[in-house]
Amino acid sequence: APECVIMMRVCWLVRQDNRHQRIKLPHLETVMVGRSPETKIADKKCSRQQGNWSQDCGDYCVGVNPTSIDSVIIGKDQEVKLQPGQVLYLVNELYPYIIEFEEEAKSPGLGTHRKRKRSGNSDPTETAEPSTGLEPGSNPRQRSVPPKKEKDASAKKESLGHWSQGLKISMEDPKMQVYKDEQVVVIKDKYPKARFHWLVLPWASISSLKAVTREHLELLRHMHAVGEKVIADFAGSSKLRFRLGYHAIPSMSHVHLHVISQDFDSPCLKNKKHWNSFNTEYFLESQAVIDMVQEAGRVTVRDGMPELLKLPLRCHECQQLLPSIPQLKEHLRKHWSK
DNA sequence: GTTCTAGAAC
DNA sequence: GTTCTAGAAC
After folding, report:
1. Which of 3.50.50.60, 3.10.129.10, 3.30.428.10, 3.40.640.10 would CATH assign to domain A163-336?
2. Which residues fall in a compositionally biased region of kind Polar residues (predicted)?
3. At what angle do helices A217-235 and A286-296 cross, to 10 degrees?
4. pLDDT tens, A128-162?
5. Closest CA to A188 of A3, A43, A18, A314
6. Is the minimum distance from the CB of A271 to strand C below 7 Å?
7. Which entry of A20, A216, A224, A256 is annotated as an active-site residue?
């Protein structure tokens, strides 16, 4: 039977500083956005019902009762359009949001949303899930047939649907691409661990640094140069420090260069492994990798990498030890609020 | 890679 | 009692 798939245009309200996951704006359905756990806004100046937002039929979304868009103050209960490129501030020039559109495949009769139990949460503004897989997590493909009792014996799990193959799918998706040329493509990390976090991937299929040889030297240099260009183009005015590097033992297949700002201000940074993978020798500086390939013809990694991920949390700016992730995050604020 | 949650740590 | 981590499941 032919597979029937409808493409839906979904609209997302995206917090510019990554403080929380994007909020889905369903078509012609209103979503309340304001002071709530979802938005992580605790500011009393922000109402719980700061604005009602919905996707309209066009290339914009509609809101009632926001404070300002692009610094133009909006009156109470005035309906306004928010278009791509415009910045919405929920209150007093704070809490910046933009909108993004995305195509989403939808099989009729089978909702794109998985039901998930959530303990006593009646909040209508539930965080929506991204439907396209970037760095792993979500189903890259929709089911065309409901699950049956008997297992599909031929369905080898680990081929292309497995989460570790997610980058291969994302890099091909034009909507994910921030930059591309003949050799490489750059995408935003789906779960950014800082305000800016990109991945530079070669089109050539290179499973990991273990497969890299001197033949790839120019490619590695190009990936580095492209990473620096993306920083200049998209974060040039941010004044943030960046690092470019590879994880010693990556979880995702396909060589990818991390380009990450050093604020580490992101709700997706949640545990010790996240922190230590960017702030110990687990993070292999791009330039060091290039030098090693030039000198030795391949990349070798020292023993004991998995253990590095369990090291105590230490601030990368002032070396102070912090006892927990929440306390580390609180500590980091004093380095980026300058 | 993320999510979920039991139970350790506070 | 609540916060937080870490390991299993995906």
Report:
1. 3.30.428.10
2. 121-130
3. 170
4. 333 333 443 333 333 333 433 334 434 455 567 89
5. A18
6. yes
7. A256
